[in-house]
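hey
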């Protein structure tokens, strides 16, 4: 099972293993610095479908099958699915995974959903409730723009603080079978609201939540930045990353030498015109799978803290003038000999 640690964390008695993972991305992501790392890069962002939403569902279908294929499992071997996306009522997930008939927990944590899925999946395996689960998520640039901002045909100008929603899906098989990476602990985030109302600057909205979770993690476990090779946030981009470092320093934790952000790493912002970087549920999910997890498995990184970040807004809340609260979930991933 495990033990409750501090106010927000869990330490697992028997750490679940990351048996396999898979990443599938769109054309723009494939043209970025990590393009050679992804399992599949689509030739176009339609993925053979008629709508952007159907394309995103296809991302989830393919990522799920790829992940369980790598683990040499059949869909019948998977006890539970933990998945979600950015679209209303998680329609990319429900329509994408419906045909597999695997018991599903549909999640919504905005862009922090990968961390939420991995946390709940790890708890499920560590608690003895499943031999194998799949934790996954997705996002699509066009479906997210259509829902949260403007249709692509509008061709609106984007401020430099805006991030570019990643087209991609990442899937992870967690189980008791030994592998080269495991999840020994998690820290669940709280909703943090600093009063930001600018939906085009979500890095600033999410950074306080990331800082709160990271500092809470250190306090719960009595650790400090030196205990980690990398602290990897999800979707803060360049703007949010600066704010995160300042907020952590204010609480006595200097993470500047070990912090990296998936949104910064996935695109070449200047060459690709992606503003402050990447975002979306798929951003951290595919970057962890394709880039960081491989380094843990190869023992180039021995322990990382993976902290996907989410902006908890909707079209309704934004149009009613509400703020953009943030949340972040931290997952410890270690090399396993």
């Amino acid at each position: 099972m495990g033990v409750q640690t501090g106010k927000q964390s869990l330490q697992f008695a028997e750490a679940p293993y990351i048996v396999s993972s898979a990443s599938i991305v769109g054309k723009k992501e494939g043209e970025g610095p990590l393009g050679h790392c992804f399992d599949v890069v689509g030739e176009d962002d339609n993925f053979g479908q008629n709508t952007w939403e159907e394309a995103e569902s296809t991302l989830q279908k393919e990522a799920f099958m790829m992940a369980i294929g790598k683990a040499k499992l059949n869909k019948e071997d998977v006890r539970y699915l933990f998945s979600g996306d950015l679209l209303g009522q998680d329609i990319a997930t429900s329509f994408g995974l419906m045909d597999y008939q695997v018991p599903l927990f549909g999640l919504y944590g905005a862009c922090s959903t990968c961390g939420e899925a991995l946390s709940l999946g790890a708890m499920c395996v560590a608690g003895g409730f499943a031999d194998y689960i799949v934790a996954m998520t997705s996002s699509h640039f066009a479906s997210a723009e259509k829902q949260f901002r403007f249709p692509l045909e509008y061709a609106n100008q984007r401020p430099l603080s805006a991030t570019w929603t990643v087209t991609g899906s990442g899937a992870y098989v967690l189980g008791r079978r030994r592998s080269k990476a495991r999840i020994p602990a998690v820290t669940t985030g709280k909703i943090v609201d600093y009063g930001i109302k600018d939906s085009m600057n979500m890095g600033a909205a999410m950074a306080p939540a990331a800082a709160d979770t990271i500092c809470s993690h250190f306090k719960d476990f009595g650790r400090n930045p030196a205990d980690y090779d990398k602290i990897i946030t999800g979707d803060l981009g360049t703007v949010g990353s600066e704010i995160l470092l300042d907020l952590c320093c204010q609480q006595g934790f200097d993470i500047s030498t070990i912090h990296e952000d998936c949104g910064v790493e996935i695109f070449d912002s200047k060459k690709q015109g992606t503003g402050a970087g990447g975002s979306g549920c798929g951003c951290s999910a595919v970057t962890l799978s394709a880039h960081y997890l491989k380094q843990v498995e190869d023992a180039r990184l021995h322990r990382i803290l993976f902290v996907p970040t989410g902006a908890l807004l909707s079209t309704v809340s934004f149009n009613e003038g509400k703020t953009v609260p943030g949340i972040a979930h931290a997952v410890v991933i270690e090399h396993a000999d």
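Residues 17-175 form a domain with the Peroxisomal Thiolase; Chain A, domain 1 fold (CATH 3.40.47.40). The chain has a mean pLDDT of 93.
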